[in-house]
Design brief:
130 residues, mainly alpha, 2 domains, two-stranded antiparallel sheet, globular
């Protein structure tokens, strides 16, 4: 797995790490049971403080995407979209869509972008399932 972060970005590094790992899980690059690099190893690779990696891993743990264990380290788990997650996700999606509408993006372009992103993750479409 290759992670790309922009050390000069306005987005905090821990958030970039969390986002890239979440995307790797969604894309199938990281399957259930996959292990993530040790915090100190990943921190050394990027030349960042290991507490930054710890924070990213803790966010992933809180979201149910990984489990942390002293022996096995960080391991990808099978996550379930419970009701609190659905509510939080809907609120975040609403804000992102509102930004697109406020900037004048046409509805068709917004929907096409959403479909394209879903396709990039290999997500099944309801109309594709029997």
């Amino acid at each position: 797995m290759i992670l790309n972060v922009d050390l000069s970005s306005d987005v905090p590094i821990y958030q970039q790490l969390r986002d890239r790992i979440t995307e790797a899980i969604a894309e199938g690059v990281l399957a259930e049971g996959s292990t993530l690099p040790a915090t100190r190893t990943l921190a050394a690779d990027f030349g960042i403080n290991f507490h930054t990696v710890n924070k990213a891993y803790d966010l992933l743990r809180q979201q149910g995407l990984i489990r942390l264990n002293r022996k096995t380290g960080a391991v990808v788990t099978s996550a379930v979209a419970d009701q609190p997650f659905r509510a939080e996700w809907t609120a975040r999606a609403r804000t992102l869509l509102a930004e697109a509408v406020a900037k004048g993006l046409p509805d068709a372009e917004i929907l096409e972008t959403c479909r394209s992103l879903l396709d990039s993750f290999g997500a099944p479409h309801p109309e594709d399932t029997p």
